[in-house]
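Record pair follows.
FIRST:
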Amino acid sequence: MSAPIQFVLQKKNKSMTAESNTKLHVRQTAIADVLLLEPKIFTDQRGWLMESFNANDYKIATGLDLNFVQDNHTHSKQWTLRGLHYQLRHTQGKLVRVVSGSVFDVAVDMREDSVTFGQWVGEVLSAENHRHLWIPPGYAHGYLVLSESADFLYKTTDYYDPESEVCLSWCDPAVGISWPIPLDREIILSGKNSAGLSWDQAPKL
């Protein structure tokens, strides 16, 4: 397994905005290690601009010293559900965002030594709210496309390792994720995601 990323919370409350960094607002989600980040948007008559990633600003605001090695971009149709994926080796931290459309993004804590082991958290990410979600190594990750389509971007702290990738079932009752799926809709799944392992079967970290 990869060396763990050092994580230090700057404050104990749920909202963490470093005084010296006005470009980035950070708050803890229901699972403290999973962070919701809101970059400052600069607007004028032409439109808007934001810094989608600045390593120094992220380190100041979160205490995370991140080294991203891979960027991925997916385009998906409405009601596509991708996940829940994680790797047993080369565990990946992910910084995710949406540049077109909206998704319900989910992280499940797979770390046996964690106080939030087996718990999940979900957040809506969209092109309109500009929010980013930081998901540390040791979490299974997936998302549901809510809009007509969505373009989803994520940066990872380690490389994709297909030989150690595991898919946790998106609908396992032991995890109990409340996906916002209307009763009259059928989700779109890949073969791999349809065959995801139950919580009891899935190897833990």
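SECOND:
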Amino acid sequence: MNMFSGKGLNMKNEITYDNYEKNIILIFAIFASFMTTFMGSSVNIALPAIAKEFNFNAIILTWVALSFLMTSAVSNLPSGWLSDIYGKKNIILTGLLVYIFALILTMTSKTASVLIISRVIHGIAGPLISASSSALLVHVFPKEQRGRVLGLNSAAVYLGLSTGPFFGGVLAHNFGWRSIFTAVLAACIILFFFFAFKVKKDTPL
């Protein structure tokens, strides 16, 4: 059967959700995009507290930040490709599981090497979630609605980037730097169960 005859990116898959289901998927996809960028920007505010606890010098502290940024930048394009090959739902769930593992590893880390490794894993898993969430919106919504939903998704990305330093600072100041990762961990668990049980499995290309 031709790949455009009703599988993968075909229009038939766009009408498998009713309007209510589409809007719920939109909300959670936006939440996923917000969460990943919030995590990236909020941790920067917590770096002084992390440095104080672990007695890090400036070089190690720089690597804590750069390890995430570099791996995230490198992982963006492959993440979109993987969602097409293996299915958007599968990649989102994989990304969330890996992200949850990295969060737990960060929260329990005692050394610089473990902390940096956990941030590298964050940088790999984050694009799996955000890029595949955007691809899922394209898959779910018809072309006449995609501009609106992708615009909302992009707004969530920049909202996460802009609010992360403020709310990350509030959490770090009042509850310690690990509270940032605890809050994101709770969000990831909610997202995982939603995507696992409410999103229908799409057909890979």
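COMMENT: The mean pLDDT is 87.
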